[in-house]
Amino acid sequence: MKNVYLPITVDHIARVEGKGGVEIIVGDGGVKEVKLNIIEGPRFFEAITLGKKLDEALSVYPRICSFCSAAHKLTAVEAAEKAVGFTPREEIQALREVLYIGDMIESHALHLYLLVLPDYMGYSGPLHMIDEYKREIRIALDLKNLGSWMMDELGSRAIHQENAVLGGFGKLPDKSVIEKMKEKLKEALPKAEYTFELFTKLEQYEEVEGPIIHIAVKPRDEAYGIYGDYLKASDGVEFPSEEYREHIKEFVVEHSFAKHSVYREKPFMVGAISRLVNNSDLLYGRAKDLYEGHKDLLRDTNPFANNLAQALELVYFIERAIDLIDEALAKWPIRPRDTVEIRDGFGVSTTEAPRGVLVYALKVENGRVSYADIITPTAFNLAMMEEHVRMMAEKHYSDDPERLKYLTEMVVRAYDPCISCSVHVARL
Amino acid sequence: MMGEKIRIGFYALTSCYGCQLQFAMMDEILQLIPNVEVACWFMLERDSYEDEPVDIALIEGSVSTEEEIELVKKIRENARVVVAVGSCAVQGGVQSWEKDKPLEELWERVYGDAKVKFKPKMAEPVENYIKVDYKVYGCPPEKRDLLYTLGTLLIGSWPEDIDYPVCVECRLRGNTCVLLEKGEPCLGPITRAGCDARCPAYGIACIGCRGAIDYDVAWFDSLARVFKEKGLTKEDILERMRMFNAHNPKLEEMVNKIFGGVKE
């Protein structure tokens, strides 16, 4: 007789972006199967933008995800500019990175305080924490507001920025706004440091300890940053962004509208901790000190370290944005936009979205998109995430199912998955 | 509705989660929260239940799987008031851009011959399946749209639609006209106002993310004539107008008038 096992399921994981679930099947002697079900519908972004005018496609791509719409916009714009053979001026590049950092600050603050922290504080969600954790909620909103405001000013709004276009910006804010941005960033620094201190105290769950391959962008300009033209793996291998398909393979799994990816036949991780693992030597300022003092917690073997790594990045990117603003201010007044001639070509951009490596490969023919391949951080992470959920399940399958669900959800949350992003789709 | 707590639910279909994020990011939420009880809001609340009765159901996202058809029906049964939030829920979203292509073709291009165990379908607006009481427009909606809608519902009143185009706000703001003075394909003349002409204020053409003003008011034909004079082809014009209006029943018919292809 065939054994019938009832799955332990979380149909809809709360406090993540997008719709996904966990399904764990426990049988005689242990965990039989673990699946991350990605149930959000497919949106076919690559397919629907094929044959479309380049500028219209660039307006649609950020709609893949709201938590990282600036990341999508700026990566798509860079891929398009590479395709048509245009290189933006340094000051435009600096201001784009400031806009991108706005997204990083907002996204990390939301993830850490509103999505992750309630688990540790014993709440089902942040709305219940308002009375007891006033200070933390205030810091969360202040940091989030700062990031949103940076995106409002430089990108036209905090979600789906239209003011980042081929050749630069539609319009740039007044110099006084940029100076105010610098002041606000300085004021925010202690709040970011408080966040880091807070997260150093949280449980790391050794159940999921083990070797992890981390992949991150190799930053340009010898400073820990967002843009880069090479990818770097923690096994020491580096390769040009254009060669991503030779090193990373994508495939469809039947329980998910999002594809899985492997590097050299193995699952791998991307995200804040992967950036630190690969590029910590490029940190500077206060963030470098904090990193040196907490290396033991920021280790490469535990996905929960991603939370603390994000907190460290809040500190780092605030300082980085101040430096980039100084760089731009030195060249003020800045012409917002250059004319871009739309020629035929192919371009690949790899950047560090809040959740990790984001790849856009675009081919342009006759002013239209003739090939599009987008791989998002969550799609890269899904296979590894499933592995870590399995490790957690194997240690706790005989516990109370509610506790098992809670722990596995926490593993998923540590990755800060962006499920809408992952359901995007790439050509095979 | 004053005095007692109003039960609300925020439900997601297929979307980028931007409408919920916009809502979650409002500081004003701290003032609203004491007046409401959240029955369902997976993005922020683990204790969320999709099948509990609520006074106000806010739905974002387009209906993009067979499973989501069942979900919207269930939400409708359990809710006194249903609000469709954002361009996906109201107009089917950008994922409807190629709605006339067969689903199989899009699927094949993205997933090849692989199958998954869920049932995908072409994206559609929520009102194709259930009665929607109110709509909040935008991709994403402006914060004031959300505050206005929830605020009016919470005091027992009802939100009213804006029935004039982005151009009105653009003129009031004193922007250079992106369409007439810069020659760009701005959709401001047919797009529902409420964003304070955000993009034209940055010198960028409107892409119509708030959707067209009501079907009998939007002058797709008139704008198509202006675009045609600027050298755009019929297909160019339709593509641009469809980005956020793919399910609009009047769009093609009105554009066809300009190109002499009225179907009887």
Protein model, in words:
The complex is a heterodimer of chains A (428) and B (264). Chain A has one domain: Cytochrome-c3 Hydrogenase, chain B (Orthogonal Bundle). Chain A is 45% helix and 16% strand. Chain A has 13 helices and 12 strands. In chain A, strand 11 and strand 12 (368-375) form a beta hairpin. The longest helix of chain A has 32 residues, at 90-121. The two termini of chain A are 40 Å apart. Residues 424-428 of chain A have low confidence and may be disordered. By secondary structure, chain B is of the alpha/beta class. Chain B is 34% helix and 14% strand. Chain B contains 11 helices and 7 strands. Chain B has helices at residues 18-24, 29-32, 66-78, 86-91, 103-111, 143-154, 166-173, 198-201, 220-229, 234-242, 251-258; strands spanning 6-12, 36-41, 54-60, 63-65, 79-85, 120-124, 134-136. Chain B has a 5-stranded parallel β-sheet with strand order 2-1-3-5-7, with helices on both faces. A two-stranded antiparallel sheet of chain B has the order 4-6. The model of chain B has no long low-confidence stretch (mean pLDDT 91). Chains A and B meet through helix 1, helix 2, helix 4 and helix 5 of A and helix 1, helix 5, strand 6, helix 8 and helix 10 of B.
